[in-house]
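Researcher: I'd like a structural prediction for the single chain below. Treat it as a standalone chain; there are no partners to consider.
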Amino acid sequence: MRAVVLLSGGLDSYTAAAIARAQRFTLFALTIHYGQRHVHEIEAARAVAGALGVEKHLELEVDLRAIGGSSLTSGDPVPHGRDVSAADIPSTYVPARNTIFLSLALGWAEVLGAYDIVIGVNALDYSGYPDCRPEFIAAFERLATLGTRAGVEGAHFRVHTPLIALNKGEIVKKGLELGLDYGLTHSCYDPLPGGRACGTCDSCVLRAKGFREAGARDPALLR
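Model: Treating it as a single chain, here is the predicted structure.
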């Protein structure tokens, strides 16, 4: 079985990909250069792809900076010390990012003859992004079947979200059970010079919460 996995270089996508590998999928990893603030997560994605032993790692350039609307693709400040349980959608939301990424994964999957796509979205410990919810994923699966030749000819695409109902602590525990080296990953939205995590952006706060709940130390902080 072949699966296209969206691989960002972060903790969640690494864990989701490893779960798919444990389910005996052959992995085709897709990493998007979308104009994000730094290259550290791209470097992490390459390291993670190597650790996973993916069949192929494809990197695509889709620069979203011209569209703007996010502090991750502009010079606007990334929020620090925000209440991550707040209901508002933060400035780090990138408009339609997961829709764009899943569409690219869908196109590659159709060419590969693969009908499974893996994405590490999470609907519990996350920053309130609308494109991480189960309703969105279900809608995209319907779109994938309606909008592709493979779907019209009878194929059914499935978007796997193995982390969607887990909290960060459960995600970390699962990854450690699978033997993952989280020191390879990068999660920070606004790293310090040299790439060290800031520790106070939403992503850093949620990552720290996950390791704390899992009773483990984050190896990325030890390097």
